[in-house]
Design goal:
Elements: E1 21-26, E2 30-37, E3 40-49, E4 52-58, E5 61-66, E6 70-74, E7 77-80, E8 88-92, E9 95-100, E10 103-108, E11 111-117, E12 121-125, E13 128-131, E14 134-137, E15 142-145, E16 149-153, E17 156-159, E18 162-166, E19 171-176, E20 179-185, E21 188-193, E22 197-201, E23 204-207, E24 216-221, E25 225-229, E26 233-238, E27 249-254, E28 262-265
Antiparallel strand pairs: 1-2, 1-28, 2-3, 4-5, 5-6, 6-7, 8-9, 9-10, 10-11, 12-13, 13-14, 14-15, 16-17, 17-18, 18-19, 20-21, 21-22, 22-23, 24-25, 25-26, 26-27
Length: about 270
C-alpha cells in the first residue's frame, strides 16, 4: 500500500493530525470525493454517477447541476430536488440557487421558487450570475453588463474577452484575453486563463507555480486553495505553516475523470 492510498485521517506527521477537508469534483463521469488535509491529497472515490455540469458547496452541503436534475448531498448520498436539467448551481446567504433551460430559481422549504429568466447560465456565485449574455444580479436577474461571461465571484467576472473587476457601477478590465474561472475569498483572488492559474498579489497578477501544465477549469477556497484541470488533475495549495512537513505550495494528483466541470469543498 502506497502513502497516497492511506486515508488522510490515518496520517500523522511529526505527531500531528491535520484537519481533514472533503473536496468534490464534478465531471462527465459523476461526482468524485477527494480527501485532503495539510497539503496532502489522500483517497479519492466516485460517490455518484451522473453527467455533472456544475458543483457548489456551502454549510456542509454539496449541490450538483446535471443534465437531468439538481442534486443535493444527504447522509444517504445525493437526492433529486425536482428542478430538472441544470447548467449551474450556487449558494447565497439564503441558500441554494440553480439555473437551467432559461430559468433561475431558489430552493426553499422543499420547493423551487422562480426568480427570473436568464439564458445560457454558466455559473452562480452569491448574488451574481454568469451567462452567455453577460453578468446578472439576483434576486431580480438585473443585467450588470459584459457579454460571454464564463464565471463570476464577488467583484469579478471572467469572460471570453477578458477578466473584469467591478467598481461601484462599472466594469474595468483587469486582464485581457479569455478567462475561464475566478474565485474570491476575502483578499485572496485567483483567476485562470487559457494557459495559467494566477493570483492577485499586491495589485498584480502572478502565475501560480503549479506542478502540472494543464488548463485550470475551476478554483475555490476553503482551508486551503483548491483547483481542478480539464485533464482531471486535482490541485491543492497550502501555506508552509499549515503543513505537517513545513513545505507548502501546490501539490497534485490525477483523478482520471473526463469532462471536468468544477470543484467544491465543504
Amino acid at each position: 500500500m502506497s502513502e497516497d492510498d492511506i486515508s488522510i485521517s490515518e496520517k500523522r506527521m511529526y505527531g500531528q493530525t491535520r484537519p481533514e477537508t472533503h473536496a468534490y469534483v464534478a465531471s462527465g463521469l459523476g461526482v468524485t470525493r477527494v480527501e485532503t488535509a495539510g497539503g496532502q491529497i489522500g483517497r479519492f472515490s466516485l460517490v455518484h454517477r451522473c453527467s455533472a455540469r456544475d458543483i457548489a458547496g456551502a454549510s456542509g452541503e454539496i449541490a450538483v447541476a446535471t443534465d437531468d436534475a439538481v442534486l443535493v448531498s444527504t447522509d444517504d448520498g445525493f437526492a433529486d430536488t425536482g428542478f430538472g436539467p441544470a447548467t449551474a448551481v450556487g449558494y447565497d446567504a439564503d441558500g441554494l440557487l440553480a439555473a437551467g433551460d432559461g430559468r433561475v430559481a431558489r430552493y426553499a422549504d422543499g420547493e423551487w421558487q422562480p426568480l427570473g429568466t436568464v439564458t445560457g447560465v454558466r455559473a452562480i456565485d452569491g448574488a451574481l450570475v454568469a451567462a452567455a449574455d453577460g453578468v446578472f444580479s439576483l434576486p431580480e436577474c438585473d443585467y450588470l453588463g459584459l457579454e460571454d461571461a464564463t464565471d463570476v465571484a464577488p467583484g469579478y467576472a471572467a469572460t471570453a474577452g477578458g477578466l473584469y473587476a467591478r467598481g461601484e457601477t462599472d466594469w474595468t478590465e483587469a486582464r485581457a484575453g479569455p478567462h475561464g474561472a475566478v474565485a474570491v475569498d476575502g483578499e485572496c483572488v485567483h483567476a485562470s486563463d487559457a494557459d495559467e492559474l494566477l493570483e492577485l498579489i499586491d495589485g498584480g497578477w502572478r502565475p501560480c507555480e503549479l506542478p502540472v501544465r494543464e488548463r485550470v477549469v475551476d478554483v475555490t477556497h476553503g482551508a486551503d486553495t483548491y483547483a481542478v484541470t480539464e485533464a482531471g488533475t486535482f490541485l491543492v495549495e497550502t501555506d508552509d505553516d499549515a503543513t505537517a512537513d513545513g513545505r507548502g505550495g501546490w501539490r497534485s494528483r490525477s483523478l482520471g475523470v473526463p469532462e471536468v466541470a468544477g470543484v467544491a469543498v465543504v
